[in-house]
Amino acid sequence: xxxxxxxxxxxxxxxxxxxxxxxxxxxxxxxxxxxxxxxxxxxxxxxxxxxxxxxxxxxxxxxxxxxxxxxxxxxxxxxxxxxxxxxxxxxxxxxxxxxxxxxxxxxxxxxxxxxxxxxxxxxxxxxxxxxxxxxxxxxxxxxxxxxxxxxxxxxxxxxxxxxxxxxxxxxxxxxxxxxxxxxxxxxxxxxxxxxxxxxxxxxxxxxxxxxxxxxxxxxxxxxxxxxxxxx
Length: 231
Hints:
This protein is mainly beta and 231 residues long. The chain has 2 helices and 17 strands.
């Protein structure tokens, strides 16, 4: 007897939809996920805002990269560009500046083909007359020390401040309460701050027109009197 191959094939093909109906997993390739781009960090000049000022017409910028075969840079303001010196995970570049703000971006290429690129940008202001000197400020009342104990819910602080430009503001902030404001006066300033029981870190900051900052701080420990605590 000759086997009915066509019938066997039909039975096999009829079994395939049954597997799909039963919800058995199908064989599928995992979707391709590209690797993350390199992490690029500027270490010099040190800045947390991404901005830097200088009175020189050239700047050396250093940084690190998680992985890269080449690190390129471009000054979008002057349209100058080049290749940074890459040694392991550290890179550096000496870049010319034009007067005003220079927008400089570094591109770290992981494979040299431009398909996996990380970047970081810094704004460098070149101004021969730029003011880089921070203001001076000091707390002189209620103490010149670093801490002060008080049994009242409000503290008054005073002191002196100055700047080479002669134009500055004095700001204050209580880290414990989140309150902040502008001090009364400048060269001789005064602030008052509400306190919470326990430690209050109060910071006074002088800021000049060049965005340079000088600061001083006082830790005020508010000790609630026993009679007030019982109310």
